[in-house]
């Protein structure tokens, strides 16, 4: 226990850093994932192509490479932001590709007659998607959305290699101070477990409240 009690502030700072990365990147990923899923089912060909390219590129790019591209590449084009913001951009954009496909799979489960009926009532594509299709699709994709955001929380560990304060990076400080590397990682794992279990509990509650009855 002394590894935790003697370094509680260090662990706390890393835990809060990971929590902030997870929350902000999740919000960005959900927003972009929704936009790209809308693009992929849009009646406009150029939007479908853009959405397809976005998903294909990001899903097939290693996350570490994306971190290098964002944190080291964007400043060369004059975009200078805190590394934490760059980390959120990298995590959010990467995860949005997976959320897009989860939402698109949910959209495909909605009977086509629902959309046709909405259009028959004079609704636009945006109204049909947001008011008719997506609310039904969301109910069926709650579990995979939760799994995707849990993966995001664990992927945030990569940010520590780019001078971003997060939980996994605390091992460097504690290792230099001579603490047991085994117990250092045990308490790091506990921190990640708390975050992932919280996300799991949230989506379990959403599934019980809004999910499709099986």
TrEMBL record:
Enumerate the spans annotated as ABC transmembrane type-1 domain. Answer: 15-203
Q: Name the PROSITE patterns on file.
A: ABC_TM1 (PS50928)
Provide the family line: Belongs to the binding-protein-dependent transport system permease family. HisMQ subfamily.
**Annotated CDD domains:** TM_PBP2
PANTHER family in the cross-refs: AMINO-ACID ABC TRANSPORTER PERMEASE PROTEIN YHDX-RELATED (PTHR30614:SF37), MEMBRANE COMPONENT OF AMINO ACID ABC TRANSPORTER (PTHR30614)
- Give the top-rank taxon of the lineage listed in the UniProt record for this protein: Bacteria
Provide the protein name. Amino acid ABC transporter permease
Name the species this protein comes from. Answer: Streptomyces rameus
Q: Does the keyword Transmembrane apply?
A: yes
Gene3D superfamilies registered for this protein in UniProt: MetI-like
Keywords assigned by UniProt, alphabetized: Amino-acid transport, Cell membrane, Membrane, Transmembrane, Transmembrane helix, Transport
């Amino acid at each position: 226990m002394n590894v935790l009690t003697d370094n509680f502030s260090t662990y706390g700072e890393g835990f809060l850093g990971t929590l902030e990365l997870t929350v902000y990147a999740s919000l960005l990923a959900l927003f972009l994932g929704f936009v790209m899923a809308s693009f992929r089912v849009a009646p406009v060909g150029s939007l479908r192509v853009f959405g397809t390219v976005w998903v294909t590129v990001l899903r097939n790019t290693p996350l570490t490479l994306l971190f290098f591209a964002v944190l080291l590449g964007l400043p060369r084009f004059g975009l200078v932001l805190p590394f934490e913001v760059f980390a959120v951009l990298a995590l959010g954009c990467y995860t949005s590709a997976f959320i897009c496909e989860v939402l698109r799979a949910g959209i495909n489960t909605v009977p086509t007659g629902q959309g046709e009926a909405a259009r028959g009532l004079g609704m636009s594509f945006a109204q049909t998607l947001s008011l008719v299709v997506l609310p039904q699709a969301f109910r069926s994709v709650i579990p995979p959305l939760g799994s995707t955001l849990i993966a995001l929380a664990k992927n945030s560990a990569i940010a520590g290699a780019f001078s971003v304060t997060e939980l996994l990076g605390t091992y460097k400080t504690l290792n230099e101070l001579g603490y047991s590397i085994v117990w250092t990682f045990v308490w790091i794992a506990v921190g990640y477990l708390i975050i992932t279990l919280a996300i799991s509990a949230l989506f379990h509650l959403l599934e019980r409240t809004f999910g499709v009855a099986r």
